[in-house]
């Protein structure tokens, strides 16, 4: 099947792709004898990206992009990021057992990839997490026509329609101009969100130094090693309170309500997340300026992606499955929920990891 071949969207009584199966360990490709984002240590794993709910430690062999392998080594340590590690560049075919695989950009974070598998004249695509919005810190999402599409559904409700992220950054900069004596403290995750916020601020013309909580610095440095220029970044830990007055400070979400924030001058507490569209979440976390900036596809992007890939069957791995399954059914697409336990807990997993990384910050 060629890259641009449009699969036949025809509903069938049985699974269209029988060689990709959910197991307790995770999604398993039978002809390749390999798991995709497995939940527990396995002999062979393909990892879509470095977030903690997808990249687990202690696999025997790991295949991923060069960037994801570097992220795993940084976060887990060399000894836990896979005993054998094989980097694979985007759009480079590789034979694994009786299946041909390649990685396609997912647009989620640096190195994030969709797993494209071909066997017996069929193509399955496992998306991992993805977004369609532009992001200068990672390769843009590439829709790949397929017979089976395995998608996330983090924001799969019609209410989740995300604004232009530059508009949200404009709100932050406007607030900073209105309150020049206050420090704007923005909660964001260390992998992906922090770097994207910095890039968006630079894109909006903000050239001042951006202050970083210690937990965010190692990942920003890693992005720099892969050619992502984030401009001047200063360490917030240990800096004088007056030096940060009127500035923008980025920190893990766990730090914005912690005693760490007391070192700042009358901080305006912000949080960058797709969940900030839900006012109750912002209020519960004491967020004064919620910023709706997500690294996941929203409702419209999920539907557009399923249309773009043309799959006759869609599996939903986590999130709000029911609404998406119903909407796809009305489009003539067979869809079902996998309900693999352990995926989609990015908020909890990253919060725990940021707390560990920031213990000494």
Give a brief rundown of this model.
Helix content is 24%, strand content 23%.
Mean pLDDT: 91
Which structural class best describes the helix and strand composition?
alpha/beta
Please tell me what the overall shape is.
globular
- Total beta strand runs: 19
In terms of DSSP E residues, the strand content is 15-25%
Low-confidence stretches: 9-14
- Number of DSSP helical runs: 9
H/E element order: EEEEEHEEEEEEHEHEHEHEEHEHEHEH
Mind describing the biggest β-sheet? 7 strands, mixed
* Helix share bin: 10-25%
- Give, in spatial order, the strands making up the sheet with the most strands: 7-8-9-10-11-18-19
Radius of gyration (CA) equals 21 Å
Q: What is the first-to-last residue Cα distance?
A: 51 Å
Provide an overview of this structure.
The chain has 361 residues and is of the alpha/beta class. It has helices at 66-76, 165-178, 193-203, 217-225, 241-244, 279-284, 299-309, 321-330, 346-357, and strands spanning 20-23, 26-29, 34-36, 44-46, 61-64, 84-87, 94-96, 99-105, 113-119, 122-126, 148-153, 184-187, 210-212, 233-235, 248-251, 268-272, 289-291, 313-319, 334-337. It contains 9 helices and 19 strands. The strands form 3 sheets. The protein has a 7-stranded mixed β-sheet, covered by helices on one side. Helix 2 crosses helix 3 (193-203). The termini are far apart. Mean pLDDT is 91; it is low at 9-14.
